[in-house]
Amino acid sequence: MPWARIAAAAFLAAICLLAMPAGAATPPRLGFSELYVTRSAIDIGFSDKVKALAGHDVAIKGYMAPPLKAEARFFVLTREPMAVCPFCSSDADWPMDIIVVYLADSAAPTDPNRPIVARGRLETGSWIDPDTGFVSQLRLRDASFTAE
Amino acid sequence: MRIRTALFGLATAGILFAGHSAHAQTIYPIDRASFLAGTRFDFKVEFTGVVDQSATKVTINGRDAAAVLGGTVDYIAREDGQDASSLLIRGATLPQPGSYTIAAEGPGQSRTVTWDVYGTPSTPRVKNVILFIGDGMSVAHVTAARILSRQLVEGKYRGRLAIDDFPYNSMVGTSGVDSVATDSANSAHAYTTGHKSSVNALGVYASRAKDNLAHPRVETIAELLKRTTTKSVGVVTNTEIEDATPASMVAHTRRRSDYNVIVDQFLALKPDVMMGGGASNFVPKSAPGSRRTDEEDYLAKFREAGYAVAATAEELNAAAARPETRRLLGLFHPRNMDGALDRKILKGSTVKQYPNQPDLTEQVKAGIDVLSRNPEGFFMMVESGLIDKATHPLDWERAVYDTIMLDNAVKVAVDWAGNREDTLIIVIPDHAHGISIIGTIDDDLPGTEMREKVGVYDKARFPNYPAPNAEGYPEKVDVSRRLAVFVNNYPDYYETFRPKLDATNVPAIQGPDKKYVANEKYKSVAGAMFREGILPRDADQGVHSADDVVARGWGPGSEMLRGFIDNTYVFRIIATNLALGPAK
Ligand SMILES: [Zn+2]
């Protein structure tokens, strides 16, 4: 997908020019369709954009899905509102394109039908939540969210 | 606290003594189990309270159980820290058919169960068995598949499905040990082991053990074939290969969601052919897209074991065509594969990310190509698994296109088996859904509300889907007069009376309090109508029904499918025709 690569390069140039002063400006947006490069079912990589933004603050629009355990300190951000098989009680049924959001301050869950924008430091790579065992590949750390 | 529990245990024993029977399921296999002679199973007696082994007596037809069953005897004084003792004999077997009475006694408690252990003829009727499972495939799915793919004109069809010409049929009861309505783990387990179990359980009886992997095991058809024959074994699905139905070929766990364990159990058994989605649990956690919790690389392990690995339709066809391919692992999606409607017509769901997924027909052809290289024959399970996964969220179009796909895949097998007279083919659902066709939805009927467009009786007439293409699929589902198909149980949701063209329907989503609310994504669809759910608020979608399902049989031995049968009898049909329990 060369267009994606070109877009990512242009995007990074834009970050370098604009987003430097003390993170005060709106962090760059990341979309759910921009997370992975899927060459095949067994050959999946993070997109260039994700690789470039890892460690930086980003903003992502999505829907808040509650985690499987009430005591969890994170929520799952999904592309579309989704049902999670309550009966399966595992992370087995989640789609691949999810982002786990660890909030800087605790916050009450919102209406699952309203989109939110989550902002936080993008973290990549496998992580198993120590409290719940929930496995994720992409996370936002020190995050906050607002209604879209 | 601990003392109180112990006292409670004693008190319970006392009550049970007064009623002279312990809890109904303290012996596994359960009362009235009917299973194949010579198969392996774990025998477990769960005593009430802590009981000294010397105070117990367990007999089979009057003889000491351990002596009769063989295997490894383990007496667990306090099972998983509970104030309760259990006798566990792993790897037991009863080589001789017959009626067995099992009596277990402890202080103040006793329990008797009977087992029917059956044999088979010593000469097989067939060399190969292909078991097609339409997950959740109810009568309405098949009727709708026939209407869409064979056309209904003046009440008569222009053609027949492949499964319509299967000569033998049965009604099948699918209930489990624990419940009238069951899930795909337990129901597939009945086909692959001949034993009944409980919701979520695979290859085990659901006992009081705390560890998912510690429950009493029963042998699967795949294990039995690998242990006692030289036949090949295939597992083909379009769900994740770790999902309940395919996993029932190899897995032994109380919880079907133990995907990493299931992948390991697949590797341990090494079915000759494995195909499906679920690649996420085969790659190490450092690979983006992995769902593993460790760095184990199961693709590498399978390659080391001699498997050709395919990730696209092209790679699958090429691997199957190579005459030296005897072991094949096809993983075509990190999660569930996409269904026929998305792949072939709508290009929705995840088809754009994974455009080269094979069709179930290609998977079956490749599976037969590889498995039939073994002159000793094979057993292959093929699942069309998204019939269920689309019906749960009330998305009948996707379910019906995958029913047509299942029929096409069955035709591939029937064409191959042709006049060989050595292959038994069974097409069977694992459980039903509460789904029914009531007429049509006709946009041209008068009225402003969509419910006024629901054509019933003579107002329904016939749907106006375009004529099916060469594969039997109409290439348009959002027609002006479409089938009216409803699921009879649902959470709160918005009924749109229309197909969902971008991705599978999501009727309800989870709110902060874990209660499901209607997904407002569909609220703005013209004519959408709120329906208040009839299910508990923790249900996110439609549920399985306990209705009988229809089994269809073709080929030698298929005449055993007649009248009403219990789902465990399907295993017996397979075992009988392959002569897996010959007299010793
Ligand atoms: Zn289901």
Structure keywords:
heterodimer, A: 148 residues, alpha+beta, OB fold (Dihydrolipoamide Acetyltransferase, E2P), 5-stranded mixed beta barrel, two-stranded antiparallel sheet, 2 helices, 16% helix, globular, disordered N terminus, B: 584 residues, alpha/beta, Immunoglobulin-like, Alkaline Phosphatase, subunit A, 10-stranded mixed sheet, 14 helices, 30 strands, binds zinc ion
The spatial strand order of the largest sheet of chain B comes to: 16-17-15-14-18-10-19-29-13-30
- CATH hierarchy, class of the largest domain in chain B: Alpha Beta
Secondary structure: helix percent of chain B: 10-25%
Low-confidence stretches of chain A: 1-9, 11-23, 86-90
What is the second-level CATH architecture of chain A?
A: Beta Barrel
Helix-strand makeup class of chain B: alpha/beta
- The radius of gyration of chain B is 25 Å
- Alpha plus pi helix count of chain A: 2
Whole-number total of structural domains of chain B: 3
Largest sheet of chain A: 5 strands, mixed, barrel
The best one-word shape of chain B is globular
Q: Find the structural class of chain A using helix and strand composition.
A: alpha+beta
Give the beta-strand count of chain A.
Answer: 7
Strand order of the largest sheet of chain A: 3-4-5-7-6
CATH superfamily of the largest domain in chain B: Alkaline Phosphatase, subunit A
Short structural summary:
Chain A has 148 residues and is α+β, with helices and mostly antiparallel strands. Chain A has helices spanning 2-18, 48-53, and strands at residues 36-40, 43-46, 57-65, 74-78, 98-103, 116-128, 135-147.
What does this structure look like?
The complex is a heterodimer of chains A (148) and B (584). Chain A is an alpha+beta fold. Chain A has a single domain (2-147), classed as Beta Barrel (OB fold (Dihydrolipoamide Acetyltransferase, E2P)). Chain A is 16% helix and 37% strand. Chain A is built from two helices and seven strands. In chain A, the strands form two sheets. Chain A has a five-stranded mixed beta barrel. In chain A, a hairpin with an 8-residue loop joins strand 3 and strand 4. Chain B is an alpha/beta fold and 584 residues long. Chain B folds into three domains: 2-118, Sandwich (Immunoglobulin-like), CATH 2.60.40; 128-167 and 198-434 and 544-578, Alkaline Phosphatase, subunit A (3-Layer(aba) Sandwich); 490-541, no CATH class. Chain B is 24% helix and 25% strand. Chain B contains 14 helices and 30 strands. In chain B, the strands form eight sheets. A ten-stranded mixed beta sheet of chain B has the order 16-17-15-14-18-10-19-29-13-30, with helices on both faces. In chain B, strands 2-9-8-4-5 form a five-stranded mixed beta sheet. In chain B, strands 1-3-7-6 form a four-stranded antiparallel beta sheet. In chain B, strand 11 and strand 12 (156-157) form a beta hairpin. The termini of chain B are far apart. At the A-B interface, strand 1, strand 2 and strand 6 of A face strand 25 of B. Bound molecules: zinc ion. Residues 136, 184, 388, 392, 544 of chain B line the site of zinc ion.
